[in-house]
Specification:
- Helix content is about 30%, strand content about 15%.
- With about 350 residues, it is an alpha/beta fold.
- It has a six-stranded parallel β-sheet with strand order 3-2-1-4-5-6.
- The protein is globular, with a radius of gyration of 21 Å.
- It starts with 20 loop residues before the first strand and ends in a 7-residue tail after the last helix.
């Protein structure tokens, strides 16, 4: 983590005095292979970094998404991540056992303002942070599917808590809008993630309807005759496409960001198969296999190419709300205001 800075981050009145230092724990940032968290984490970290905040993602060595990616696809996707996100900071770690692990974690958290725990955080870290209410950093914990947060006594919770809750903070799904032009768009992309049967059925339905598509595999579905493109390279492909058809993104709440990656590049998108139940507005169309050919035909004759990421999924806005929630919470911890609950 960065070196010690004695300047407090927030004044008693909640005004931000310097950029925040944040540590994020989760399954993986570098591997999105079966790991929808990576899509959102990359976008929000990019937005935070562009605003001057210091953010580090910590992932275990030999974590499952990275091991699976290397086994199935080799190291090229990791190189693609580094090329696409050169400013995102991450570190791998191997947590020592026993008291050494507690000392290691104390050193990691010594200079931060907030620690964010997502699914994939090792149980040992969650256990060490439970009950560890400190004055110099805020503990933010994910509550998957609106259930119990990973940290039972978290200072802030990433969840759809009742409106007006002082503990609720947004973080995902999110994408980072990219500069784009509606000109010179040619390809119709069919991108398969995690459902081989639906992906193959979608290709067959479009072929029978006479629609020519470029197939791309970007998830864990075994699609051996589909060229694999790492998700880090998809924005560039979407930026040159007339239409994206995204198949089998999964029902994980954070997987919604996969459906919005084309929108971030100004590309209309149709989602086929299981998808998180989200209100995408007009940015994303949803189709069944039977309705797909007609929806594709309609989209290809539509002149409406200027589309925008809905504000609820804009990583820039989420980053600002995240910083605001942490900034409001820090004075309560640092200056002895009322309880954390």
């Amino acid at each position: 983590m960065p070196g010690t800075n004695t300047t407090p981050p927030v004044a008693p009145n909640g005004r931000l005095l310097r950029p925040l230092r944040l540590a994020i724990f989760g399954a993986s940032l570098v591997s999105d292979y079966g790991n929808p968290l990576a899509t959102t984490a990359r976008a929000v970290m990019q937005a935070l970094t562009e605003r001057g905040h210091e953010v580090t993602f910590l992932e275990e060595r030999r974590n499952a998404p990275t091991v699976a990616l290397l086994r199935e696809r080799g190291a090229a996707p990791l190189r693609a991540f580094s090329a696409r996100y050169p400013r995102l900071r991450y570190r791998t770690y191997e947590m020592p056992p026993g008291i050494e692990g507690a000392l290691w974690l104390s050193r990691e958290l010594a200079t931060i303002d907030a620690v964010i725990l997502h699914e994939g955080t090792p149980p040992a870290i969650i256990e060490l942070l439970t009950g560890r209410s400190g004055r110099h950093f805020v503990r933010v914990a994910h509550a998957a599917g609106g259930g119990q947060p990973l940290l039972p006594d978290a200072d802030l919770v990433i969840s759809a808590l009742p409106e007006g809750s002082t503990q609720s903070v947004p973080f995902g799904p999110a994408v980072m809008p990219q500069p784009h032009s509606p000109e010179q768009r040619t390809d119709v992309l069919l991108v398969g993630y995690d459902d081989m049967d639906v992906a193959q059925a979608a290709r067959s339905a479009l072929s029978e309807a006479g629609v020519t598509v470029t197939t791309i595999a970007s998830g864990i579905a075994p699609l051996p005759d589909w060229p694999f493109v790492p998700e880090a390279e998809l924005p560039a492909r979407y930026g040159a496409a007339r239409l994206a058809i995204v198949v089998g993104i999964g029902t994980d709440p954070l997987a919604a960001a996969r459906a919005l990656l084309p929108v971030a590049a100004g590309c209309p998108v149709i989602v086929v198969g299981d998808a998180p139940r989200r209100d995408f507005g007009s940015a994303v169309k949803v189709a069944t296999i039977d309705s797909l050919p007609a929806q594709v035909a309609e989209a290809l004759v539509s002149a409406e190419l200027q589309i925008a990421v809905p504000s609820a999924f804009d990583a820039t806005e989420q980053a600002e709300r995240l910083v605001g929630a942490i900034a409001r919470r820090l004075p309560a911890l640092a200056f002895g205001s009322p309880s954390n609950n």
